[in-house]
User: Fold these one by one.
Assistant:
Number 1:
Amino acid sequence: MTINRRALMGLIAGAAFAVSAVQGIAAGVLRVGSYPANPPWEFKDASGAFQGFEVDIVNEIAKRLGMTTDIQGLDFKALFVATASHRVDIVISSLTITNDRLQSQSFTQPIVTGALGIATKDGAGVTSVADLKGKTVGAIATSFGEKWLKDRAAEIGYTDYKSYDTVSNMLTDLTAGRVDAVANDVVGLRYAMNQMKGLAVPVEIPTGEKFAMMLPKGSDMLEKINSALSDMKTDGTMATIYKKWFGVDPAAGSVTLTPMPVPTSAD
């Protein structure tokens, strides 16, 4: 059989990709993608090292699998590209399991049930979602908060929407009055309020969204990682990490304490 030059180059490129996709595993390194400005879930400290709730969890997972972690900081939208291209083995960034995402990504069992927060300037007069009518609102691009706002645009009646790549830029615009209110994970917003003056989170919206860790679709590491999470929930490790970062014990019977299988739907 004759193989022309173009076909040969294609074979070489494919082989190189296959090698790179397993290189991290072969070397005992868990390649982690993370949005680096998402405290207390994950963030960089003054020395540039990653810290946070999910950082502690993924480091513990790696330890139990006999691996170490290599955590890369990426823009939020780039996280999905990184898993799809196998640039990373797993992503942490308070990611919501959705049916749309499950079509192209894999998720571990949930570790936290989330709620959406609406942040405003102090004294803005927003005490409910209804008060967003006629306002300019914003959220992080491709986030659950963005989808929630856009799905309810007609119902809420806000006049303008702004999309952001980073939480810091979003909150800077909120402080400067370039946006009237923003929607994001309530835990992250309240943590940010401790660092910033003049802002508040007057509205919390229970959503039932479930946060989990994301892997490439069909990853052969998924079941091992999910099993490690179940063990952490059972032996008390998850509860200890949760209290360290959130200041309270996880609720009895919550997804933080309940071992679960790999999800096949967002329900």
Note: Confidence is low (pLDDT under 50) at residues 1-26.
Number 2:
Amino acid sequence: MTKRILIVDDEESVVFFLGENLSNLGAEYEVKTACSGEEALEKMSVHHFDLVITDLRMPGVDGLELVEQVRAHYPQTRLILMTAFGSDQVEAEARRLQVYRYITKPFRVEDLVDAARQALGEMAISQKGVLVLSDERFEAITRCLSDLRFEIGAQCILLADIMGQLITQVGLTTSLEVDVLTSLIGGGFATTFEVARRLRQDQAFNLNYQEGNRYDIYSSNVGDNLFLTIIYDKRARSSRIGLVWLYTKRAIKKLLEITSVAEVARIEELLSDDFGTSLSRELDSLFDEVLTGPPVEASISDVKPHQDEQKELPTDRPATTFSLEQAIRAGLLDERFACDE
């Protein structure tokens, strides 16, 4: 599927130059340009863009204003901010608005191209990564949220990662813009974590409460990567702050226990456990064979199980290894692992 990139800069020569270089990413990428924040928003209202690369200082709608509007209306779009006027304040704002990459000028074009490739490549696996959870743990998380909703009587509860990507939800969300909501709240927690980092606080725990005419909204981080959002429709039921915090903190403790063993993995690592275990056992068996005798062509059934005890390599015989072709002929690896030159 084609991925669309929008480059925004008020200098036409810069836009043209960056557009030419990013076009070299490949045929699966489509690059468009805009010379102002207003033009960028107009193009985004017509076409979806997967990545927006924008300069900071521009007349009219500047880079931060553009980023803020994109984050509010197109929460799934990745953002890269370029600037020659970097500062701690600008960097903090970029973090708050969940900018994927913050690049200061002057920079090498290759670095920008790499950043764009990484941003678009990681989108296929959900923002910066995919939270690897077994079905059992995912069900445990959902059950924990359901129990919390029952205990406090909320309309709905959302669990999302810090980039605003929804992981799971319980309750009624029909009238809510869930994607936009989680994206905006996630931006607030990004600021909280940045403050904690500046103050060298390893464990930051943040509880927020927003009282409105129609909705009461509670939110709290779950570790450094996740956060909860709890919503009450006041026309149906009001909330009690003390009760909500008591049960929410208890639920967060459970969620941290469930997710503590989960990992954020890249897409190439997402092989099944059975496959990885099988391949590891077969390779161990192969190395045992190499250590105790010359290589022979054999089927998987001929390979001896891995032994826990170590065997010494005879000093009068040079070490021998299998080539990829030998391993395939021996049945130790599938032919799909052979790549054409």
Note: The two ends are 26 Å apart (CA to CA).
Number 3:
Amino acid sequence: MSLFKKQVKVAESFSEDADAIIAQADTLAFTKSLPDGLNRLILSSPPYNIGKAYERQVPIEDYLEQMQPLLVELVRVLASNGSLCWQVGNHVDDGEIFPLDVFFYHRFKKLGLQLRNRIVWHFDHGLHATHRFSGRYETLLWFTKTDDYIFHLDPIRVPSKYPGKTHFKGDKKGKPSGNPLGKNPSDYWSFMQEEWASGLWEFPNVKANHPEKMAHPCQFPIELVERCVLSMTNPGDWVFDPYAGAGSTIVGALKNERRGIGAERVAEYCALTRKRIELLSAGELRTRPVGKPVHQPSGREKVSQIPLSWSLNPVT
């Protein structure tokens, strides 16, 4: 039964009977409490160490050493045929750029993971730099634990650029030359207009006018989550986000009949995640439809978000 049509059972600590687990906890301590090999997919965007409200900026070497114990635990709780998707940008220190994917690659590689794709996530809007070119992309590192991993291409295919193209010679002359379900979306995800029709991985980052926008400064678009969930897991699998934030990973998992786990220190963000699950269960959660053209701002938009002062009814 679709989770849109039933109550979602939410727990605060690990429970095999839960549909979702929202732990207000230190992520390392919580991850240590999870069973070995539990998660088919670990998907997260860790703090970038750039001084956001929820982090304290430290030298890059200290930041990476602080992260290392968690990385070890993430590999432990990843299923043997599972995937780890680590979405990062750049650490900036005194105007110098440190590409975090480079640093994390070597650490995950030493822990035995294998890199399957380095996906470039391009977007058209963001902060404007004055002493260098403005950053308009981030990267998602897709690792697997072994060579025997889950990957479903058909659910995430995009329309072919020339869907009616046929072979012009040989035994297959006149027959379709491409897969009738569409083509592989590639390792370049672009945030542009008419995204689905263009055949690229195109969905906007979550800014003020995005229907999913809430009171969180760095929020995953659910479309990004869904592409990973549909291609790298099966229904009923556990999907874990060690830095859950406003819960997009959990929502994207539940929306597609998987189970979600998230660890988050901030109580307000845990409450927001519960509210989003409550709305999802009632069929009332606003999400951005795949294929909708990316909004072009006029400069007159007002921020619309779910306020932290909402009354949050428990979800059982």
Note: Confidence is low (pLDDT under 50) at residues 191-218, 290-294, 303-316.
